[in-house]
Structure formats: C-alpha cells, structure tokens
C-alpha cells in the first residue's frame, strides 16, 4: 500500500505532538514544515517561552476539559518513564481571590480555582487547603501534584521521537496554506501530500486560505531565575492590574524557575517591559518568600533572562476541525492560548483522528 503523505505545518508543541502521534502509524509518511524550529527564540514562536505545566483551565463539560483530561495520562507517563523528555512532578498550590473574578486573569483561572473542580479526580493528591491556613485576602486554595516541563528539552525530545519514526523536518515560510500541497518537493517524497495539518498557532491569523480573524495574542512576560521556591505556586490575580498575575514553576533538569506574569490581550509588544518585570519579581517574592533568603527582596533573585511570549488565543476556543481549501484537504489544530502543553495530547489525538478520517474517505474514492 502506498504511504499516506502528510504535511504538518508548525513545529510548536501542537505541531510536534500531532506529528508524533501520526508517526506511530508506519503507513504515514510525514514532513514537518516550519518557519521556526526548537532551538529558536522568536516572538512568533510561542512554545519555547511557556512555563510549561499542567494547571487545567477548561470549563467543565467543554471540549477543552476533554482535551486537558486526555492529556494528563500522557504527561504522567512521560514523567514516570521518560526522564529524557524533561518533565518532573511538582507539588502545586493554587490560591483564589474572589475579587479577581471578571478580570482577564480571573477569567483565565476561573475553573482552576473552583472549590470543586473537575480535575480533582484527574491529578494526584488533590485537596482543599483549610480556611484557617489561608492568608488574609485568600478566599480558597487547593494543592495537588502536577508536572512542569522544561521546554528546551521537551521540544527537541518530540523532534527526536518523530525522527525515529521517519518524520522529515524542513524549514519553510508559506504565504498560502495550499502552497504546502502544491509547491513541488515540500513533502520529502516529492509527491503532493494527501492532507495538510495546520498547527501554525497565531500565524493562522495571516496565513493565506485561513486568515482567522478570531485569533489574537495574549502577551505573557516572564522572568527566569535560578532560585527554587520548592513548589509550583499561582494565584488568580494581582492588585497591579487585571491583566497581571503571579505564577512560578521550576522546570525539570536545571531549567530554572519561570516567574510570571501577564495576560495582556491584543498586545503584540515583543520587548520585555522593565517596570512590569520589577512588579513580577516583587509579587513573586511577596507570595512565596522561600524564593529568596530571609530578609532579601527581589535583589535576592538570580536572574537568567527576561522573556515575552504571545499566547495564541482564539475566540470560541481552539480550532480542531477539517475542511477543504482550494482542493486541498486540511486539518486544523491551532488557537490553544496559554494551555497548549496541557491540552497537547488531547488536541493532537482529535486532529490525528480527523486526518485518518480524511485518508479513509480518500481511499474509498
């Protein structure tokens, strides 16, 4: 039987996870085309800047919940059985302030900080923190075991798994999505692909044939430090603005602690704001004094770098669906906002199923 020829556009976590799952079927011949690859740091390439972790934010009963629910087993298995992938378990504490409801960060965290969230039966060791143990201003809190991902290790690991399964990686910049099928030799076999999988994230806003106006950025600014707070900690908002928040997580394998952050919708600025950076560090030390030695303020933080990433948000949620564009079969998997990693396997499984449906319908013709 002739191989199924597939092109995956995009080498962020969504594109790489989709290519990885598709590559497990030996009848699939896959080329990943991307402007940016793991190892690049560019404002257009969101995945390297992520924390990244598993803090579920999907609304109960939604596709988003399903995707996050279906991703946890894969992340847990990688953490337990594949240390080379760059994940580790971390004790996690989530604080909620009722007054943050309705703010940009409060809406983002609304499911995460529920007193009886759906994910309590998914993650290990979930428990509510008793009210008499909460600081003034904190209305409720919970703790559980989660994972933190060192993206500088994990993204190349995904590339390695794909290459082991025969996936070919190429640099390419396309103006129109049909170029992936109609430009000679973009698929490594030299033949026209049977299906194109679009995992271009925020770039789907301008990619010809897609031009999804529902996409927009939510700018996130971070500070990466050498300090280790000993826990993954987050809170629903801050008093510095409704799009500023506090979270911190220590990446596996010496990847440093990522401290955030911001959730600035429709903000494209690629440069770190030094004033915001100071606020981020002050909020982190105030929430988790264990970050620095006793008596030290932000001067006790050992900064590795400052960074900015643009989360690819989409009105109505991620787009995971199939269509035909200019005679080309396309499966979309983009628009994951700030939860690309923690929904990656769930979304990629659905996208891979859509690809299989397209290929099956073609085989019947």
TrEMBL record:
Catalytic activity field: a D-alpha-amino acid + O2 + H2O = a 2-oxocarboxylate + H2O2 + NH4(+)
Residues annotated as binding FAD: 200
InterPro entries documented for this protein: D-amino_acid_oxidase_CS, DAO, FAD-dep_OxRdtase
Cofactor: FAD
E.C. numbers: 1.4.3.3
Binding site for D-dopa: 338
Alphabetized Pfam families for the sequence: DAO (PF01266)
FAD dependent oxidoreductase domain ranges (all copies): 5-354
Gene3D superfamilies recorded: D-Amino Acid Oxidase, subunit A, domain 2 (3.30.9.10), NAD(P)-binding Rossmann-like Domain (3.40.50.720)
GO cellular component terms given for this protein: peroxisomal matrix
Locations listed in the record: Peroxisome matrix
GO-annotated molecular function: D-amino-acid oxidase activity; FAD binding
Membership in a protein family: Belongs to the DAMOX/DASOX family.
Keywords: FAD, Flavoprotein, Oxidoreductase, Peroxisome
One BP annotation, GO: D-amino acid catabolic process
Protein's name according to its UniProt entry: D-amino-acid oxidase
């Amino acid at each position: 039987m002739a191989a199924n020829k597939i092109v995956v556009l995009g080498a962020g976590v969504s594109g790489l996870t989709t290519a990885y799952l598709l590559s497990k079927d030996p009848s699939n011949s896959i080329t990943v085309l991307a402007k940016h690859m793991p190892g690049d740091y560019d404002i257009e390439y969101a995945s390297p800047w992520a924390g990244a972790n598993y803090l579920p934010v999907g609304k109960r009963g939604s596709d988003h919940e399903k995707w996050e629910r279906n991703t946890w087993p894969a992340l847990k298995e990688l953490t337990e059985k594949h240390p080379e992938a760059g994940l580790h378990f971390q004790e996690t504490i989530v604080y909620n302030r009722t007054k943050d409801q309705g703010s940009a960060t409060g809406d983002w965290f609304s499911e995460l900080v529920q007193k009886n969230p759906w994910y309590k039966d998914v993650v290990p060791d979930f428990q509510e923190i008793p009210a008499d143990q909460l600081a003034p201003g904190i209305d409720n809190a919970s703790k559980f075991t989660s994972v933190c991902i060192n993206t500088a290790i994990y993204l190349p690991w995904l590339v390695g798994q794909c290459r082991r399964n025969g996936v070919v990686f190429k640099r390419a910049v396309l103006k129109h999505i049909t170029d992936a099928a109609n430009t000679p030799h973009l698929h490594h076999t030299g033949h026209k692909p049977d299906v194109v999988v679009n995992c271009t994230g925020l770039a789907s806003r301008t990619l010809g044939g897609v031009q999804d106006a529902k996409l927009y950025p939510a700018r996130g600014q971070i500070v990466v430090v050498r300090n280790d707070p000993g826990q993954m900690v987050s809170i629903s908002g801050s008093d510095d603005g409704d799009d500023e928040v506090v979270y911190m997580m220590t990446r596996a394998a010496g990847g440093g602690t990522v401290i955030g952050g911001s959730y600035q919708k429709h903000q494209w600025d690629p440069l770190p704001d030094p004033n915001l950076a100071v606020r981020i560090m002050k909020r982190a030390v105030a929430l988790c004094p264990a970050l620095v030695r006793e008596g030290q303020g932000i001067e006790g933080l050992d900064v590795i770098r400052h960074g900015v990433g643009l989360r690819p948000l989409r009105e109505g949620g991620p787009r995971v669906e199939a269509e035909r564009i200019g005679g080309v079969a396309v499966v979309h998997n983009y628009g994951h906002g700030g939860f690309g990693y923690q929904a990656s396997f769930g979304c990629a499984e659905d996208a891979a199923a859509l690809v299989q449906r397209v290929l099956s319908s073609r085989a019947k013709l």
